[in-house]
Design brief:
With 201 residues, this protein is mostly helical. It is built from 9 helices and 3 strands. A 3-stranded antiparallel sheet has the order 1-2-3, covered by helices on one side.
Length: 201
């Protein structure tokens, strides 16, 4: 009862680490050769801004198919931070290819997980985080965590002109307050605002 009287501290923003598309591709290519079992997880983190645990917990049964094409991913309530079910039903060709290839690899291992470890079991989230820290230092000279991709995804999409509502529909954020923890000012963005506000050509 006493604990309930204490207010939960407000979430604070972490230091933003910009990650360019070229850096993402360089890192992905290295991981594909070094640890192919981590490739799909990393792609999803970069591409959708999802949390590591949410991605690792996806099972083959959570993919909806039309004939041989995936059309949606369903995340179980226990695997989302909000503890609410989440469904992504916008799957483009590139994303579909990653899902299909991962599904085939998983089936060859008789695994229930879409992105199984090398033994066909479920990945340990902390092991993946430790690997990401080491491999990002080695390949990019940056100390990255899987969560850095979530921050980068949200910030970059807004800078490109996407609306908060549309980005939140991908990331699964329920409130603008929680979403804005993941958005950051960028030097390029500030310059763009100043340039666009010029009154004289």
């Amino acid at each position: 009862e006493i604990l309930k009287t204490f207010k939960k501290p407000r979430a604070t923003k972490k230091q933003y680490k910009p990650i360019s598309k070229d850096q993402q591709l360089k890192l992905l290519n290295h991981i594909k050769a070094d640890r192919p079992d981590y490739y799909g997880i990393t792609y999803m983190a970069m591409r959708l801004g999802w949390r590591r645990g949410q991605i690792i917990a996806i099972k083959n049964k959570n993919i909806e198919w039309t004939e041989h094409r995936p059309i949606a991913i369903y995340c179980e309530p226990e695997d989302t931070k909000t503890k609410e079910p989440f469904k992504l039903d916008t799957i483009d060709g590139e994303l579909a290819t990653i899902i299909k290839n991962s599904h085939l690899r998983s089936k060859s291992q008789n695994s229930e997980w879409l992105f199984p470890n090398r033994d066909g079991g479920k990945h340990h989230a902390n092991h993946y985080t430790e690997y990401m820290a080491k491999v990002s230092e080695k390949v990019l000279g940056l100390h990255l965590s899987p969560h850095d991709f979530r921050h980068s995804f949200c910030t970059t999409r807004l800078a490109e002109g996407c609306t908060e509502e549309d980005v939140m529909a991908i990331t699964g954020h329920r409130t603008r307050e929680s979403f804005r923890i993941y958005t950051h000012r960028t030097s390029e963005g500030v310059k763009k605002v100043v340039a666009n506000s010029k009154l004289f050509d």
